[in-house]
From TrEMBL:
Pfam families: Amino_oxidase, NAD_binding_8. This is Amine oxidase domain-containing protein. InterPro entries: Amino_oxidase (IPR002937), FAD/NAD-bd_sf (IPR036188). Transmembrane segments: none annotated. It comes from the Archaea. GO terms for molecular function: oxidoreductase activity. Residues 177-396 form the Amine oxidase domain.
Amino acid sequence: MRPSGPLRVSIIGAGLGGLLAGAALSKEHDVDIYERLDIYGGRFTNLPYEGFQLTTGALHMIPHGPTGPLAALLDRVGAGVKIVRTSPMGCFMTKDNRQISFFNFRELLSARAQARIPALMAKMLVQKKGTVADMVWDDPEWLQLSDSCCGWALSTLSRDTPGEEAAAIIRHVVGGGPGKYNTPGVPMGGCGAVVDALARKLEENGGRIHLGEKVDSVIVEDGKAKGVAVGGERHEADMVISDIGHRLTSALYDARYSNPKYADVLQKLRPSAGVKICLAAEEPLVGHPGVLFTPYAQRVNGMNEVTHIDPSLAPEGMHLTMSHQALRSNDIQQEIKLGLQDLRNMFPGKKYSVLLVQTYRDDWPVNRISSGFDLGNLTPVKGLYVVGDGAKGKGYMEVEGVASGVANLLDTLKAN
C-alpha cells in the first residue's frame, strides 16, 4: 500500500531529467538528489570560458521554444525561464554556401526528387516500419537532407533512425492543430539558466541536491526499491528515480531483480554519439539565430548562433557559433578533423577561432538511448523509475523528449 502523506524520494543524478522530476515532486514530497559530479545540470548547463557561456552538451536551444513540452513543464513547476523564439526557424546551406529557407528545401532537389514529395508526405502519416532511409527510398538526394536533419536533431543518421519516430517528430514541428509546437527558442541565459531555475525551485520547496555524492547501489527488498546507498550509508526512500539511463541504473541493483527480456534489450541498445565544435567570431558566421542545416558537408550536420538573441552568451562584440555532427566512426580524431575542415569550407575567408571541441559517446553520450528506442520510465523493480534521455516521450527531440518523459512519469505516479 502506498504510504499516506509526503513520500521520501531519492533521485540519482542531477541532470535535466532529475532536476525536472525533483522540482515537480518536491511540491508535495521530500526529495533528495544525489549527483556524483560537483555541478548539477549534466549535459545541459553552462561552462564559462573566456567570457563565453559554452555548454556541457546542449546547444543553448530548446527545439519547440516557449510552447513545447519543456517550456510547459518549467511553467508547471514554477521555474520561470524566458524562452525567445528564433526567426527564422532554420535554413539550409546550399552547395555554393548560400542559405535558403528551411521551407524552401525543394530548391535543393532535382525535378525527379521533387516529384516524390507528395508520396513522402503520405508516408509520414502511416510510417510504422523501417528507417528514415527507407522512408526516403534510399534516394541520395533525399538522404543528404535527412542525414543533416537527423544528425542535428537526434545525433543519428537516416539509416539508424526509425521512420515512425521521425514522422512523429515532423508532425510535432510542422503539423497542424494542437500538436504543432513550431520553431525553436533560446533560453535567456542559456542552458544554465534553465537548470539554475529548477535547482532554486527544488530548494524553495525543501528539496536537497547533494553534489559529489555518488550512489553506490539501489536498495531492493522483495522486488521493491527501498532507498539508495551512498558512501556506505543507507538512505531510506519510498521511491527511487534514476536520471542515469536504464543500463547504468540496472547495474545498481542485484541482477536477480531484473528479468531476461529486459536484460537482453539493454545489451542491444546503443547510445547516440556526436561532436560539437564551438567557434568565436567578431563577424557573424551563420547570421541569424535559427538552425543552419548543412546537408553537403562531410561531417557537420548543422549549427546555430544564439548570440543574435542572447548576447550575454559571449563577450561584448563577439558571437558564439556551435556546430554539431553525428559520430560516424570510432576514429574520433578523424571525425573532428573532417568537422573542422567542413567549417573552413563553409566559411572561407571568415575570421574565427575554435574555442572548444567536445565529443559525446559511451557513458557521456548525446542520448543514452537513441531516439525511437526509448524504454520508458518503468523498470523491473517496483518503485524504481527512469527519466532523462533514455526515457524520452515518443516523437520529441532531445530535451523536449526528456521533459515529455518526466511528464509521463508524473502522470503515472498521479494515476497510482
